[in-house]
Design goal:
This protein is mainly α. It has 4 helices and no strands. The chain is elongated. The two termini are 13 Å apart.
Length: 176
């Protein structure tokens, strides 16, 4: 019953873009994983001169910067899980077999990741409010937003649709 769709430009383009995104996120995760501990042991970070203002990093800010870096690592790690699950769903579509319990579970995991990303964004926003000398909190757009909430709801609803579709397919195969 499984049929491979070898030449679907949409699926090919999507797969390539997802793998590029995955690679960039993986690189960011590695950088962040090494940056947070380096900050805590007192390594100095280059501070970028933005708009002619050179903020000053003081020793008491280092734990907050490390916490912000750790929160960014968590956010990127969640995005990695999200993208990997999406890659697997696209692969199942290429095989003409998307209505499976595995994809329902993947969609549910993606929903939980999207929810956790929303909370990680709130945590990062809270941390930026404590570092006004380094980061202008007004320019940080993190936290809960309407499109993120809609994405979470959509993912959980789609997970149920896929579960019901997989059950209906099993029932149909059982009657044939």
């Amino acid at each position: 019953m499984t049929q491979f769709l070898p030449r679907d430009p949409l699926l090919t383009t999507t797969t390539v873009l997802l793998w590029i995104s995955f690679g960039l996120l993986a690189f960011a995760a590695v950088v962040l994983a090494f940056t947070a501990p380096a900050i805590l042991i007192g390594a100095t970070l280059p501070i970028i001169d933005i708009d002619g203002i050179r903020p000053r990093l003081i020793a008491t800010d280092l734990p907050l910067v490390a916490a912000l870096t750790a929160a960014a690592f968590v956010l990127v790690s969640l995005a990695l899980v999200f993208i990997r699950k999406l890659i697997l769903i696209v692969a199942s579509v290429r095989l003409s077999d998307p209505l499976t319990d595995a994809n329902a579970s993947r969609l549910q995991t993606m929903g939980w990741c999207a929810l956790a990303i929303q909370f990680a964004g709130v945590a990062m926003k809270a941390l930026t409010l404590r570092l006004p000398a380094l980061i202008d909190p007004a320019k940080i757009e993190l936290g809960f937003n309407g499109s993120g909430i809609l994405l979470i709801l959509l993912l959980f609803v789609l997970a149920r649709v896929f579960r019901i579709g997989a059950a209906m397919r099993r029932d149909l195969e059982g009657t044939v």
